[in-house]
Design a protein that fits this description.
Number of strands: 0
Radius of gyration: 21 Å
Distance between the termini: 54 Å
Number of domains: 1
Bound molecules: zinc ion
Strand content: under 5%
Shape: elongated
Helix content: over 70%
Structural class: mainly alpha
Order of helices and strands: HHHH
Number of helices: 4
Length: 102
């Protein structure tokens, strides 16, 4: 029996189509009981789902560290003057970016 060639894009690994929700649930810890067991079993033997699970976990870790620490840091430490300076600078960057695009 011949299987199709397994192509994994390291920048955007995709799990098997029927495993997408299960792999996602496993990565955020919402999978429980039988579905968790089944997904772990499948991921062990499936390079596509293994790569996808790794990528999902990496993204979740990155989000959880970025999100809170950086946002809270800015909210707490910016005085109103610094905040408006920052907003002006971001507007200017945005305008320049649009200027170069059009
Ligand atoms: Zn799979």
């Amino acid at each position: 029996m011949k299987f199709g060639k397994t192509v994994i894009d390291p920048a955007n690994p995709q799990p098997c189509s029927h495993m997408r929700n299960l792999v996602s649930s496993l990565s955020d810890g919402s999978a429980g009981g039988l579905s968790s067991w089944y997904t772990r079993l499948h991921v062990k033997g499936c390079p596509k789902c293994g790569a996808a699970l790794e990528a999902y976990l990496a993204i979740r870790i990155e989000l959880s560290t970025l999100d809170l620490s950086e946002k809270t840091h800015i909210e707490i430490n910016l005085t109103p003057e610094r905040r408006s300076n920052l907003e002006l600078a971001m507007d200017r960057i945005e305008q320049e970016r649009q200027g170069t695009l059009t």
